[in-house]
Amino acid sequence: MHDENPEQTPAEQLDLISETLQAELKRFTNIEERGRATLSLSEAEKQLQDLKDLRTRFLGKKSGFTSLKKRIGRLPAEQRAAFGQKIQQREDEFVKALDEEEAFRKWLIDAARTKRESIDVTMPGRRPRPGHLHPITLMRERIEDIFVSLGYAVEDDREIETDFYNFDALNIPQGHPARDPQDTFYTTDGFALRTQTSTVQIHAMQRRGAPVRMIAPGRVFRRDTPDPTHNPMFFQVEGLCVDRGITMAHLKGTLAEFVHRLFGPETRTRFRPSYFPFTEPSAEVDYSCFNCGGEGCRICKGSGWIELGGSGMVHPNVLRAANVNPEEFTGFAFGLGIDRTCARIYQLDDIRLLFENDVRFLEQFR
After folding, report:
1. Which one of 175, 249, 268, 350 is most buried, by most CB atoms within 10 A?
2. 312, 332 contact by CB (below 8 A)
3. What is the mean pLDDT of residues 262-267?
4. CB 340 within 8 Å of CB 228
5. Which of 92, 81, 66, 47 is nearest to 2 (CA)?
6. What are phi and psi of 284, to 5 degrees?
7. Residue 192: its pLDDT value, please?
């Protein structure tokens, strides 16, 4: 800073440096005390850095003052002491001024940070908002509690399955529409996202053998176009009971007890003949509307009945695929949609609301 000018005397050069530094300092020192006290944290931090830069430019190792000190030795002997004292006096004045300005900015910064980070203990506290379970989880736990109390175990397994567990072991033949890529999410050749939690039943029977009583709640995936009643990812619970002497009457009694505990003791059930590859005989299960008691309302669309899901006696081919002897054991199976049941109980018109993660919607469920 300020290269030595041979045409200027040391005294002239000192005056020029002093005037320049004084002008720079005026940017900071001519601010009224009231104005400086209102500087924001960011402004004070910037000015502090500017002051440090100013100190380096004018008082550092390569500054004009340092250059002048080196010229003292070239002055006549009788001038050296007086000129050296003058340089030191000017330098001390500017160091003091810079120190004062820097100290004031540091005070402002500390005060602003303390105010920002301080806690007023006299102010009332903010009560933390407690979290709660998702409505689908709440429904899943209600279903699990009912079947556990009936002696069923809760099983879960992988969501990506082989064709054997997803189709072959469930007696779904080649060419069946369920195997079509338009219905199933295939990952790689021979693997797909499970289309139903019935796959867990095969794993459980292979691992535990028979007799077995279990439910398998979990996510399943199908290529459905999202609409108020469908979603490509949804939650389902499958139930399985395999033992000696199991009949259709056990299935009807189990599901009747389930809907009594879930919807109330006055709820009735009915079975309609149907077809599923993995059960024979098969039936669709309905229950009387929990809202109107079977008289007809908006929820049951005026019919008085609501569909629960599919059910039936386990097909012998399914038992064989799981290494269970169908000559010795029989069993029943059933499946129902957790999110659809949840939507009906909470009277939701659109099942997609359960998957949109809108806190405004979800916080109403406890």
Report:
1. 268
2. yes
3. 91
4. no
5. 66
6. -90, 140
7. 93
- Tokens 């300092």 sit on residue: 25
Could you please report the per-residue DSSP string of 261-280? HHH-TT--EEEEEEEETTEE
Structure tokens at 169: 């072991």
CA–centroid distance for 22 within its chain: 57
Query: Which contiguous run of DSSP H or E holds residue 33?
Result: helix 33-37
Report helix, strand or coil for 186.
strand
Torsion region of 309: left, alpha or beta (phi above 0 gives left; psi -120 to 50 gives alpha): left
Q: With helix as H, strand as E and coil as C, how does 66-127 read?
A: HHHHHHHHHCCHHHHHHHHHHHHHHHHHHHHHHHHHHHHHHHHHHHHHHHHHCCCCCCCCCC
Task: Tell me which H or E stretch contains 312.
Answer: strand 305-314
Amino acid identity at 182 = Q
Cβ burial 301-332 (10 Å sphere, 16+ → b, else e): eeebbbbbbbbbbbbbbbbebbebeeeebbbb
pLDDT digits (tens, 9 = 90+) for 183-195: 899 998 889 999 9
Query: How many residues appear in the chain?
Result: 366
pLDDT, tens digit, for every residue of 106-139?
Answer: 888 888 888 777 777 787 878 887 778 899 999 9
